[in-house]
Design brief:
The complex is a heterodimer of chains A (387) and B (273). Chain A has 387 residues and is an alpha+beta fold. Chain A has six helices and 21 strands. In chain A, 20% of the residues lie in helices and 39% in strands. Chain A is rod-shaped, with a radius of gyration of 37 Å.
Chain lengths: 387, 273
């Protein structure tokens, strides 16, 4: 808005010869603004009288301002200077050019949206209760500053997690909160980086703020792991009740989460399989090193259940293979429960060599143990670590 | 209406593709696998899902194992340039996608020939040397001495197909290691931050990474009687290993057993030269 007060080259008290007001509108902290003095002539000088909380550069006619990040509320700035009227001769006396004064007021409202909770870059580690697979309630609270506001705050929380080998697991949660009041969300069986965006529409102008947070894992006590793994497995006759505890030790050293750096945050992240030349990092994950998925990565209950299911399937396949071999080899004895488990462990670790293979000795079929050192070591390590 | 038409077109296309896939698969019924370039292209264009029943059927009939295996990848290629084609297959028996071996299949005079190479991974990689394609087989140097989530330095071995089985020809192809393995190892050592492993959770990982570098250098020296590392690199490795191993629990060192002492002795030996 431009208001022309006068063009006469006469000063009346502090009043300028030319006055104008520039409405900067509704702004947010960090915004850049600009105001130009437009008296009817050539601007000769100009300076800031009152910055109104902004940081101004430039002049003499055009001033560029930056709104400080911590500024919210009404802005009122003032600028003054001199100008020479158009044509240069309108007010000429005795051949000397007449100098006039100008004055410019800037007005505006700076509205800020403060995310009060959670804090920027906060890490929400899982809690022990109830099952080491969930955060506590995470409070989301934001406040509009600089103007009265009775509307809602709209939240967008994007959770993302990815290993080098796996697909990206992304989900965006959308919810609202009243201004300056918290709403809680709990993250269960999921984790990773959270991009949190709060939006408020004030006087028709949307303003938003964005921060990053993280959801990460927690150490799970050995006794809790052992108790669960022993309930997840029903061995064949004569088999090993705690076999899954040995597998968990050989696969991950009993860890679902371990300290490492991801998304530039050092915290307890799901235990990923290491990178090799022909395997990207994170092809398998967690305590039982099962194929990566969001839940197998972030929920040890799901991970151990998946591992137990895969091993049960291997045990079944082992039984079928043994029966097939026996069908064409009369007298080939049955495998004991432990032997069948060893056979199944060979499958679980992905070896083509079988832990036992049939051989004929002196006309009689019997089982021969593999000479594959890696397979022998894997099975022995599991056996040594059974709880 | 449109949706229904699209659905019918899709089903028609799918059935054409499946029928075409079945036609291509019939190529594998030949008494001897000697395919034209075009036929090889058609076979390699099939998906592992389409190929799976045939390949799993052949392998389990030859070896008596693996009825429930899942075919993750395959490649038809004339490995030794003799005009007979081989089929390389990655078969998963783990149910987890962990594959420790590569199966090589061929067929001559109505009989299948099958060999297995220890090769960790899901991909099929070959290295061309003259008219031959050598199988690049990745081996984890720490094998099953450590857990599956631990760093486990890998080393590649090269295998040539003789027509009946695979033979390790790594020693004869120093150029492969000079051009690929040595730069990758020396860069990894050069980049390694000496301050790493400062806290407990890092120590095991860092120790095994550094130990793996030592094992890989030792393996190269075993093959070619020269060290892949400069004196400075060897010194850095020895310094890192000495610092990191001091923090390790005896259980892990015991687990690594002789291998640990061998790598220590190897580095010392290289420095004393």
């Amino acid at each position: 808005m431009l208001c022309l007060v006068g063009l006469l080259p006469v000063m009346k008290g502090d009043a300028a010869d030319y006055s104008q007001t520039v409405d900067l509108g509704v702004k947010s902290p960090g915004d850049l603004v600009s105001a130009t003095a437009t008296p009817p002539g050539k601007v000769l000088t100009g300076h800031v009288v009152n910055p109104g909380g902004f940081v101004w550069t430039g002049g003499p006619a055009t001033f560029n301002g930056t709104i400080p990040m911590d500024f919210a509320g009404a802005h009122a700035g003032k600028f003054r200077g001199t100008y020479q009227p158009e044509g240069g001769g309108a007010g000429r006396l005795g051949g000397k050019p007449k100098i006039f004064t100008w004055e410019m007021d800037t007005r505006g409202t700076v509205i800020d949206l403060l995310i009060i909770q959670p804090a920027a870059d906060e890490n929400h580690a899982y809690l022990a209760k109830p099952d080491y697979n969930s955060t506590g309630p995470v409070a989301f609270k934001a406040r509009v500053e600089g103007a009265p506001y009775a509307g809602k705050i709209a939240w967008e929380v994007k959770r993302e997690y990815k290993t080098d080998a796996g697909d990206p697991y992304e989900k965006t949660y959308e919810f609202n909160s009243p201004n300056d009041q918290a709403v809680n969300r709990t993250f269960t069986s999921e984790g990773g980086r959270l991009t949190i965006k709060a939006v408020a529409v004030v006087n028709g102008v949307p303003i938003s703020k964005q921060i990053l947070n993280y959801v990460t894992g927690v150490a799970i006590p050995d006794a809790t792991i052992t108790k669960r793994l022993r309930t997840l497995y029903t061995p064949p006759d004569g088999g090993t009740k705690g076999l899954l505890t040995g597998i968990a030790m050989a696969e991950s050293s009993y860890r679902q989460f371990a300290k490492s750096t991801k998304y530039a945050l050092e915290a307890k992240w799901p235990v990923e399989s290491p990178k090799t030349k022909f395997f990207p990092q994170g092809a398998y994950i967690g305590m039982m090193q099962v194929p990566v998925a969001l839940e197998t990565a972030w929920d040890w209950l799901v991970n151990t259940k998946a591992g137990a299911a895969i091993f049960a399937e291997k045990l079944q396949s082992s039984g079928a293979e043994v029966a097939k071999l026996q069908a064409t080899r009369p007298g080939l004895p049955d495998l004991t429960g432990v032997q069948l488990e060893n056979y199944a462990l060979g499958l679980y670790v992905g070896a083509r060599a079988r832990y036992y293979s049939p051989v004929q000795v002196a006309g009689r079929w019997q089982w021969q143990t593999t000479k594959n050192q890696d397979l022998l070591k894997y099975v022995a390590r599991i056996s040594d670590n059974v709880q | 209406m449109y949706g229904r038409v699209l659905q019918m077109v899709f089903c028609l296309l799918l059935s054409v593709l499946v029928a075409r896939g079945q036609d291509v698969l019939k190529l594998l019924n030949r008494d001897s696998w000697s395919f034209s370039t075009n036929e090889v292209q058609h076979l390699n264009a099939l998906s592992p899902q389409v190929m799976q029943p045939t390949v799993v059927g052949i392998v389990s009939s030859v070896t008596e194992y693996g009825d429930n295996d899942r075919l993750l990848a395959f490649r038809v290629i004339d490995l030794n340039g003799d005009g007979a084609d081989e089929l390389l297959a990655r078969l998963d028996c783990s149910g987890r996608g962990i594959v420790q071996d590569l199966v090589v299949l061929s067929r001559k005079g109505g009989a299948y020939i099958c060999d297995t190479v220890s090769a960790y991974g899901q991909d099929i990689t070959v290295y061309q040397s003259g008219t031959q394609f050598l199988i690049v087989a990745s081996c984890r140097l720490l094998g099953e001495d450590v857990n599956h989530a631990d760093p486990n330095q890998d080393f590649q071995f090269l295998y040539a197909w003789s027509g009946t089985n695979c033979n390790d020809v790594s020693r004869q192809h120093r150029e492969y290691y000079e051009s690929r393995f040595v730069p990758s190892l020396t860069n990894a050592i050069a980049r390694y931050d000496e301050r790493i492993g400062a806290d407990k959770d890092d120590q095991r990982r860092s120790f095994l990474e550094v130990f793996g570098f030592g094992m890989a250098a030792q393996k190269f020296t075993e093959l070619f009687s020269v060290s892949p590392l400069s004196r400075e690199q060897t010194k850095k490795l020895e310094r890192l290993l000495s610092r990191l191993s001091a923090d390790q629990d005896t259980k892990l060192k015991k687990q690594l057993g002789d291998e640990f002492r061998k790598v220590e002795a190897y580095l010392q030996n290289q420095l004393n030269r």
